[in-house]
Amino acid sequence: MKNLIPYLSLTILASCGEKNSSEKAESDNILENLTYSVDTVVVDAGNELINLSMGLYYSDVSPDSKKLYQFSRNDHALAVLDLDQLKIAKKIVFEKEGPNGIGASVSDFMALPEEKFMFSTFESAGIFDAQAVKLEEIKLKPDDFPEFDGEDYDLNFQLGISSNEQFLYALPGNFSATERDLALLNQSTKTAKMIDIPELDDTGKFTIILFSNGMGEVHLEKYFMEEYHEKLYLSSSVTSDLYRYDFQKDSLDFFSFPITISPKKKTEFPKTEVSSKKEQQEESRKVQSQISFKNLMWDESRKLFFRIGSIVTSSDSPDMPAKISVFLYAFDSDMKLVGETVINDLKHIPEYPFFKDGKLWSYVNVEDELGFAVFTFNL
Questions:
Q1: Is residue 340 a contact partner of residue 327, using CB atoms and an 8 Å limit?
Q2: Which whole-number Å values give the CA distances from 212 to 27, 221, 277, 295, in the listed order?
Q3: How far apart are CA 137 and CA 118, in angstroms?
Q4: Do residues 27 and 20 make contact, with C-beta atoms less than 8 angstroms apart?
Q5: Torsions phi, psi for 210 (to 5 deg)
Q6: What is the mean pLDDT of the chain?
Q7: CA 305 to centroid of chain Cα atoms
Q8: CB neighbours (10 Å) of residue 260?
Q9: Which pLDDT band, with edges at 50, 70 and 90, does 140 fall under?
């Protein structure tokens, strides 16, 4: 591969908000006068191959944001990318079966501290080290927990584990579940509980299921769960509202924000079941034309949370591209909204975004090479 670091330097000095003359001189919106620049960098893969057939769908960033781990289900290999050097540090090849097997069909992947990893399938999960050795096997069955007695749960849906490995958490239910609760399992006490998260219930109402010729195709809106500072943040793509669960205090807080630059949530529900591809596309456009939110991100350099929202408006003409509006929101460590703005001039919605060294990184495919658009924000 060509060594292109950086591949492209594209500088955009864009004002992301216009100040109205009637507004007060000093604003509480820290993003009101935001400008930014963008550099595009490419990872040097050397003689290795990075499988981008699914982008960074099976990937995670290390807790210190120095490494990105990208898993390929084709060969069960984990590429360890050094984000400081922009090159592959190594590849870890995992076994599919056997005592150190990760399973034939990995559904979720998670990077843990001390370069440990959790792989989940629909039936089991395990924690592995950097030598591809299984350190712990996790088999979650409702029958093993009296708290779930009589319930038909798929406990492995979006299964995660706290950084101290004491708590397991998931959003149980089959793929068509319209409502989900937070399942929390204490590994020390071997006890479990279900926690109601009703403000995220609308997420499942945007599911679109196509049944045609005996086959099924499902579109799901996304749930997000991230741990920061020993607290679990739960959100979804359909709303700006979110929950924060404190593992140590066993407490749940709900947050709703006075957002003004965009809608706060999706409101127009699609038809849940459709019978043709055309009908599916029509209902999907109905969903995509509404506000959609990304995961919550922590910027250690500023001690702020950030989140991205977007709206895609399809053109009436097939020759014209869709109109994309991208929004950025900022929150302090207590989850108070402290800034919001429209990010002008973006032609693509940031994909798999995360913060590193005070900059926003998002995945881009550069001529089938792994690249990142790196945003420098000037607040």
A1: yes
A2: 54, 21, 8, 32
A3: 10
A4: no
A5: -105, 120
A6: 88
A7: 14
A8: 9
A9: confident
**Is the distance from CB of 208 to CB of 280 less than 8 angstroms?**
yes
* Spatial separation of the C-alpha atoms in residues 272 and 206, rounded to whole Å: 7
Label residue 221 left, alpha or beta by phi (over 0 means left) and psi (-120 to 50 means alpha): beta
Residues 6+ apart with CB under 8 A from 150: none
pTM reported for the whole predicted model: 0.90
Indicate the residue type of 296.
L
Q: What does the alpha-carbon distance between residue 72 and residue 57 come to, in Å, rounded to a whole number? A: 10
The full 3-state SS of the chain, as one line of letters, equals: CCCCCCCEEECCCCCCCCCCCCCCCCCCCCCCCCEEEEEEEECECCCCCCCCCCCCCCEEECCCCCEEEEEECCCCEEEEEECCCCEEEEEEECECCCCCECCCCCCEEEEEHHHEEEEECCCCEEEECCCCCEEEEECCCHHHCHHHCCCCCCCCCCCEECCCCCEEEECCCCCCCCCCCEEEEECCCCEEEEECCHHHHHHHHHCEEEEECCEEEEECCCEEEEEECCEEEEEECCEEEEEEEECCCCEEEEECCCCCCCCCECCCCCCCEECCHHHHHHHHHHHHCCCEECCCEEECCCCEEEEEEEEEECCCCCCCCCEEEEEEEEECCCCCEEEEEEECCCCCCCCCCEEECCEEEEEEEECCEEEEEEEEEEC
Number of residues that make up the chain? 379
Burial of 379 from C-beta contacts in 10 A (0-12 / 13-18 / 19+): middle
pLDDT digits (tens, 9 = 90+) for 237-289: 999 999 999 999 999 999 999 999 999 999 999 999 998 989 999 999 899 89
**pLDDT digit string (tens) for 307-316?**
999 999 887 7
- Pick from 161, 184, 67: nearest CA to 108: 161
Say how far apart CA 119 and CA 350 lie, in whole Å: 26
CA gap 143, 212 in Å, rounded: 35
Burial state string for 236-247 with b = 16 or more CB within 10 A and e = fewer than 16: bbbbbbbbbbeb
Residue found under tokens 């020759």: 319
